[in-house]
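Hi team,

As requested, here is the filled-out complex form for the flavin-adenine dinucleotide run. I kept the field names the same as last time so the parser does not choke. Let me know if anything looks off before we queue the next batch.

— J.
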Amino acid sequence: MTEQTLLIWHRNDLRVQSHAALAYAREHGFRIIGCFLDVESQWRAHDHGDRKLELYRRAADELQRSYRQAGLEFHLQVAGTYEQSIEHLHRLIERIQPAELALHAEYELNEYQRDCQVADICRQRGVRLRIFHDQIMINPEKIRTKADQPFKVYTPFMKCWRSLLDHPGQLAPLPDSLPEPLPDSLERQAQMRLQQFVAERLDGYSQGRDFYARSATAEVSSALAIGLLSTRQCHVVAMAARHDYNTEAVEKWRNELIWREFYKYISYHFPHVCRGNSFRREYDALSWNDNSDWLDAWQNGQTGYPAVDAAQRCLLVSGFMPNRLRMVTAMFLTKDLGLDWRAGERWFMQQLADGDFSANNGGWQWSASTGVDAAPYFRIFNPVEQSKKFDPDGDFIRLWVPELSGLSGRDIHWPSALQRTQCGYPQAIVEHKQARLETLERFKRLKTS
Ligand SMILES: Cc1cc2nc3c(=O)[nH]c(=O)nc-3n(C[C@H](O)[C@H](O)[C@H](O)COP(=O)(O)OP(=O)(O)OC[C@H]3O[C@@H](n4cnc5c(N)ncnc54)[C@H](O)[C@@H]3O)c2cc1C
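And here is what came back:
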């Protein structure tokens, strides 16, 4: 019998280990061919910035080299848009004539629609399409309330997720794939970062995660965003660590991974969020301020709120921002400046190396109180109190706002007008107390209209 060919289209699954489609291909003895289609115009249209594009390109190049080292064919092509990527794929299918095409499902609207078109092509060409749910752990169709509806609240979703998966054997590692990751590849580096986190920081995760100057979290989000790591790998190492470490910390970390799944699930079941709408549609009628100077000050870390400015400058330089600060700065944009959350969402996507539509949209809508299971609109963080609580010595501010580095731990969170002038640091562009009242008014007006 001649060996059958399986074509794997890699998208946000740029790894060779713990890869469902590769494991399947190996198990069934297929001749494997891989491909990746560079869709820069589409990425740009989705607001991905240079950092994320660089990651895609380097990871795709390494993937190609891994395949080739294992003697496997790999096609790396420049396609432009999703529409064009479908044409490229179609031509590849005609040329290779695979028995099967394998994909890891993606849940956001444009990606879902693209894959529906791919399914049509496969039907026309007589190619069997294999779709694996590997970007998240469970097919979103399989998690539903007792009334057979999609969940809209995180905690019952998480409990249902755990009831389906937290059994021995369910979260087992996948068998090793045929190609090996290259020694110094992004995939290897991500695996090492995960192992190092588990060995050194996981135990203290629940106490440390919000204290952002301590770097107590895993920092694996950019690896998860383009699939250098799989969520399965993260759960497997965390489960293995349960015996040695503080169980509460391990489960807390796993719950964060489940938040990531929850937001992808929301994009899938409520695709209006992918069209720029509020999850809670009534909030689309909110009237936002229109002030490009404020937006500019926020983007460039010049608001006069040290924690917000430190966060924004960190993002600009590094492409990363710790989670607590993402919440603080997102609330500041929407509740202190009264600017539309979509402007912040867009800016984050352009800057973040881990930019991921669902997590970003979910985080922004949570902070703006327009989202699924979001912060209630009257819960408004005070950026100065948040700074005192989670960066008590002001170390993070000192690192990113060096003009304030000479101030004491007490003054650095909110310097006096004189200190600001002496340090060359801006006066605050808004007053928190007043801005808070205006936001409460904005939401109340909507509720009574
Ligand atoms: C306004 C806002 C925007 C955000 N934008 C993004 C984004 O574009 N991409 C992104 O990956 N995350 C985003 N997040 C979620 C979170 O801030 C990052 O995932 C986290 O900071 C990454 O750091 P880590 O890998 O050290 O996380 P850890 O705390 O070690 O968590 C492990 C993993 O769990 C997932 N995770 C953790 N917290 C969340 C969360 N709140 N929501 C969804 N997934 C989570 C991430 O994949 C993360 O890598 C956003 C949060 C907010 C409030």
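Two things worth flagging: Residues 5-137 form a domain with the Rossmann fold fold (CATH 3.40.50.620). Strands lie at 5-10, 31-38, 73-78, 100-104, 128-132.

Thanks,
J.
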